[in-house]
Specification:
By secondary structure, the protein is mostly beta strands. It contains 6 helices and 54 strands. The radius of gyration is 58 Å and the shape is flat.
Length: about 700
């Protein structure tokens, strides 16, 4: 091997060839064999050479690349032979140790494989170094790699070899941050950190001297004064007895000294506490408004000032004051009232009088009032209280005449003739009465279910001016669709909603009541309407009788004047009166009104045609309407009267009232026409009602 200087190269690839050897067969002359020292030595040498040859042929070349270069490597095994920088070693594991001055000792294991030449790289870790740290600022706090280690001066700070961040910090000094490379290997290093002052010297002078200087709320001395002030913006405050406090903003730049201009201190104001009887009197100082009593004001010292007290209904009062610096005075004045007489006449005669909330006795009397705004209240049991702001006029004969109204009259007066539901629908108030429903047997087109019956409606109720639109119903059920007929949509926002069941209409009424926190009219169990609360003032469907009153009675004052058709007593309907089965619908309807054209094939937007005499739209035509009642027929005997009827208690069908865009016969167009259903239809919608509260 080239690394074994002075020794023959051994070619491990050459094959050792045996030579011919013939053992002695004993036929030769016998001789005596004696074991001499020479022979023993020769034998031992032969064994050593044989073992050495085997080792040399079997061992692998191993190079241990240890850093640093001066490292001492030792393999702890007799089976490893060092030859120069390399080792010959058999396959297997070997414990080694690597040492070098200034580095941590390393004990490890290497595994020699079958490869002929192998290299193992080993890097020793250097021992820590030692750092001395000093600073121009005594007792500065030192942080290394974010960890506080102490205050300067510091000696023999043990640090691992490598780069470290050093931070030196002290109050009133600018911190210093630097990076240092630690050599390690027990080397001693030192640094000195020069911190820069974070302040400047500032000189303060006042006239007069002796004032206390405060920076950011901390007193720093008395003028004349030179002080160290930190860099930045500060709140400056200068105080001296009997003088006004001086305030300013002080801006300081580190290491740039300042001599501030002379601060001229003004004499302090005097303090005056002002009170008056009555209180809340206005106050001026030399004509300048100061506020209302009770009041504290400051007054410049050493000269007189005029105070003026005033209040509506009282004589004006003037006073002169003068104060010394920081002197505290108090002034309490009484204002003289300006009175006038007022005669009060009230009905009923038992009414009581209150002035500014205080009881004054019977309301019918002459009272002396301040010439100022007074709250006059007149009360009587069962009546609405009267309240008024009253200003009396001195020198004038004044009267106040009041007639109280009863609580009942106020309730009536407060009833709104129109209301707007949460969905935007307008409802009109109706005051119904007694009338006759149905039609005479002699009336053309009459059906058997239109028997005459006397009805008395005692409860005022609100009824919507229009039918519920698609837009309004979809606030309740966004997924609802009114559908299409012969490619004509029924689902435009302003068209009346159709294809709804009676139950859907009732649930919509309950939903609308919930939006306004009204009591629910319909009783619902498991999603189904099972009854109703007659006393509820929530939204509902109109009863059949209420619908008939709104559709047929032309004038509340004359309920005997009933409309036969929505437009009057005779056919045909006037031009553009309503939406009925007209010639424009002939393509989809079998029966239409001859020569009548309302321009709509199916339903029209609500309120497209004039309202009826009561102000309601589409009571005939457009779409027929669900009402509250179960369907049934009744026979009335004698002079009996149905009072506020809600229809039969049960049934299979509900009543449908009014004609629709699909109706054109004399039977269907009459306002007494009664239909019924238990299914949704494309020509049936609904409108809403609710009973007036307190009825």
């Amino acid at each position: 091997m080239s690394d074994n200087k002075g020794k023959p190269d051994i070619n491990h690839d050459e094959v050792i060839t045996p030579i011919d050897f013939t053992p002695n067969d004993g036929s030769a002359d016998k001789f005596s064999f004696q074991l001499s020292p020479v022979k023993v030595g020769i034998g031992v040498m032969l064994v050593i050479f044989a073992v050495t040859g085997w080792f040399v042929l079997s061992a692998k070349s191993v190079f241990i690349d240890a850093q640093p270069l001066e490292s001492l490597v030792e393999i702890h095994s007799p089976l490893a032979l060092q030859i120069g920088p390399r080792y010959l070693a058999l396959q297997g594991e070997y414990d080694i140790s690597v040492t070098a001055p200034g580095y941590y000792d390393l004990n490890t294991t290497i595994t020699v494989q079958e490869d002929q030449a192998q290299t193992f790289q080993i890097q020793l870790l250097p021992l820590p170094g030692y750092l001395d740290i000093t600073s121009n600022a005594e007792a500065a706090t030192v942080y290394i790699d974010g960890e506080e280690i102490g205050q300067t001066p510091l000696s023999d700070v043990e640090l691992a070899a490598g780069e470290h961040e050093v931070l030196v910090r002290k109050d009133r000094w600018e911190e210093e941050r630097l990076s240092i490379e630690i050599e390690g290997r027990e080397q001693q290093q030192s640094i000195n950190v020069d911190l820069l002052p974070a302040w400047a010297n500032v000189s303060f002078m006042t006239s007069p001297p002796g004032a206390t200087v405060t920076i950011d709320g901390v007193d720093i001395g008395v003028t004349p004064l030179e002080a160290e002030v930190l860099d930045g913006e500060h709140e400056l405050l200068v105080k001296l007895n009997q003088h006004k406090v001086f305030t300013d903003t002080l801006n300081v730049t580190a290491r740039i000294d300042q001599d501030l201009p002379m601060i001229e201190l003004e004499q302090a104001d005097g303090l005056v506490l002002l009170q008056s009887s009555p209180s809340n009197a206005g106050v001026t100082l030399n004509g300048t408004y100061q506020g209302q009593t009770p009041l504290e004001i400051t007054v410049p010292p050493g000269q007189p000032y005029e105070l003026t007290f005033f209040r509506t209904g009282y004589e004006e009062l003037r006073r002169t004051i003068q104060t010394a610096p920081e002197e505290e005075l108090s002034l309490d004045v009484t204002l003289d009232p300006i009175l006038s007489s007022v005669a009060i006449n009230a009905q009923p005669a038992s009414a009581e009088l209150y002035i500014n909330g205080e009881f004054q006795g019977n309301a019918n009397q002459v009272v002396e009032l301040l010439a100022a705004s007074q709250t006059i209240e007149i009360r009587a049991e069962g009546y609405v209280p009267f309240t008024q702001e009253f200003i009396s006029r001195p020198g004038l004969e004044q009267q106040l005449n009041v007639a109280l109204i009863t609580l009942e009259q106020q309730r009536i007066n407060n009833i709104q003739p129109m209301i707007t539901a949460a969905n935007g629908q307008e409802l009109k108030l109706l005051y119904p009465g007694d009338f006759v429903m149905g039609a005479s047997r002699r009336e053309a087109g009459r059906q058997a279910n239109e028997a005459l019956r006397s009805v008395s409606l005692t409860k005022p109720f609100y009824l919507s001016l229009t039918e519920v639109t698609n837009a309004q119903f979809q606030q309740f059920d966004p997924e609802h669709s009114s559908g299409v007929i012969d490619r004509i949509t029924l689902g435009n926002r302003a068209q009346p909603v159709v294809n709804v069941t009676w139950q859907q209409a009732a649930l919509y009424c309950n939903w609308l009541s919930e939006q306004e926190d009204l009591p629910l009219f319909y009783i619902v169990e498991n999603g189904n309407v099972v009854g109703f609360n007659e006393d509820s003032t929530g939204y509902r469907l109109p009863t059949e009788a209420e619908w008939a009153w709104a559709a047929r009675v032309e004038n509340d004052d004359d309920p005997t004047s009933l409309l036969k058709f929505p437009w009057g007593p005779e056919l045909p309907p006037p031009e553009q009166h309503g939406n009925y089965a007209d010639i424009s619908s002939a393509s989809i309807l079998g029966r239409v009104i001859i020569n009548y054209n309302d321009s709509f094939v199916a339903s029209a937007p609500v309120a497209s045609f004039p309202p009826n005499p009561q102000g309601f739209y589409d009571m005939g035509g457009n779409v027929a309407e669900w009402v509250h009642d179960y369907y049934g027929t009744s026979v009335q005997f004698g002079n009996s009267i149905d009072v506020d009827p809600y229809g039969p208690e049960s049934g299979t069908y509900h009543v449908v009232r009014g004609s629709s865009w699909a109706h054109g016969s004399i039977t269907e167009l009459r306002l007494s026409y009664r239909d019924y259903s238990n299914e949704a239809r494309d020509d049936v919608g609904f409108r809403i009602a609710r009973t007036l509260e307190a009825y």
